[in-house]
């Protein structure tokens, strides 16, 4: 379904990205509209798939997940069965926050959040026991400089 997004829609989306828990009245005030048209626009955007899952952002460090690894994976396997097994292995592991298939020398990059290096090793051992990989390089993030889920509307 294709949906046209105008400037008011963009303002609403920006407000929802900033704080999805705010009331319809607050959003309407901030975008210069009233409650009912804002609700109708949000419903239209949700029905079209522009607005997805509503979640909250948790502080990983405060919850003890202090280690963030970026895992670069090269594989010599490119068959559909291997890809399915790899995808299932990733989906079964909550430590994997993001996974991307890449163009270039590296086939996949994962963002893995764990409590410490020992927990990363357990993740790594479990992953390689399920799927064959050619090479794995893990890079420990020393400091997060920026993190956002907001799109530049």
TrEMBL record:
Return the protein name.
Answer: Lrp/AsnC family transcriptional regulator
Recorded hits in CDD domains, A to Z, give: HTH_ARSR
Recorded GO cellular component terms are: cytosol
Q: Which organism is it from?
A: Sulfitobacter sabulilitoris
A Gene Ontology biological process annotation? regulation of DNA-templated transcription
Highest taxon listed in the record's lineage: Bacteria
GO MF terms here are:
sequence-specific DNA binding
User: Which InterPro entries does the entry mention?
Assistant: ArsR-like_HTH (IPR011991), AsnC-type_HTH_dom (IPR000485), Dimeric_a/b-barrel (IPR011008), Tscrpt_reg_AsnC-like (IPR019888), Tscrpt_reg_AsnC/Lrp_C (IPR019887), Tscrpt_reg_HTH_AsnC-type_CS (IPR019885), WH-like_DNA-bd_sf (IPR036388), WH_DNA-bd_sf (IPR036390)
Q: Which PROSITE patterns match?
A: HTH_ASNC_1, HTH_ASNC_2
Q: Pfam families from the entry?
A: AsnC_trans_reg, HTH_24
Q: Which UniProt keywords are present, listed alphabetically? A: DNA-binding, Transcription, Transcription regulation
Q: What residues does the HTH asnC-type domain cover? A: 5-66
What PANTHER family is this protein classified in?
DNA-BINDING TRANSCRIPTIONAL ACTIVATOR DECR, LEUCINE-RESPONSIVE REGULATORY PROTEIN
